[in-house]
């Protein structure tokens, strides 16, 4: 996020940006089917985050709750966080062995822009679950983890 008008802009520092995201995540997002927050409240660098996605309607994911881990390294938001499903899931953009969302196979990470947020990632992953290539894929048993 940048502030300013005209030709000048100010880049919001990393920690301010993450505090904004934390506040938004704690308030609840949109329709309540995605959420996120810090993994460890004592992590002053705000690196480790947990996300949750409730599977979209009219897909094999409907009614399932998926847990994810997001890691915002020191270069976030210039570079995207690493994203990994903790809950087992079968999706074309997720490594079947590790649960890692592979940036080359997930457009938002592949074409990351500074203004994107963790919320954007979770919302886009939920949309990806409902996409034709993922909507009907056979899923691992619910409650299994990577």
From TrEMBL:
Residues 13-146 form the UBC core domain. InterPro entries: UBC (IPR000608), UBQ-conjugating_enzyme/RWD (IPR016135). It comes from the Eukaryota. Signal peptide: none annotated. Heterodimer with UBC35 or UBC36. It holds the Pfam family UQ_con. This is UBC core domain-containing protein.
């Amino acid at each position: 996020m940048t502030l300013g008008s005209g030709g000048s802009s100010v880049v919001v520092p990393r920690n301010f940006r993450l505090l904004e995201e934390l506040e938004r995540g704690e308030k609840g997002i949109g329709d309540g089917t995605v959420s996120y927050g810090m993994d460890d409240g004592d992590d002053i660098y705000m690196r480790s985050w947990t996300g949750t996605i409730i599977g979209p309607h009219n897909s094999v994911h409907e009614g399932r709750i998926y847990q994810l881990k997001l890691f915002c390294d020191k270069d976030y938001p210039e570079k995207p966080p690493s994203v990994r499903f903790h809950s087992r899931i079968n999706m074309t953009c997720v490594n079947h062995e590790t649960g890692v969302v592979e940036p080359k196979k997930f457009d938002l990470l592949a074409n990351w822009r500074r203004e994107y947020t963790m919320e954007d990632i979770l919302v886009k992953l939920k949309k990806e679950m409902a996409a034709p290539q993922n909507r009907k894929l056979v899923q691992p048993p619910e409650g299994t983890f990577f």
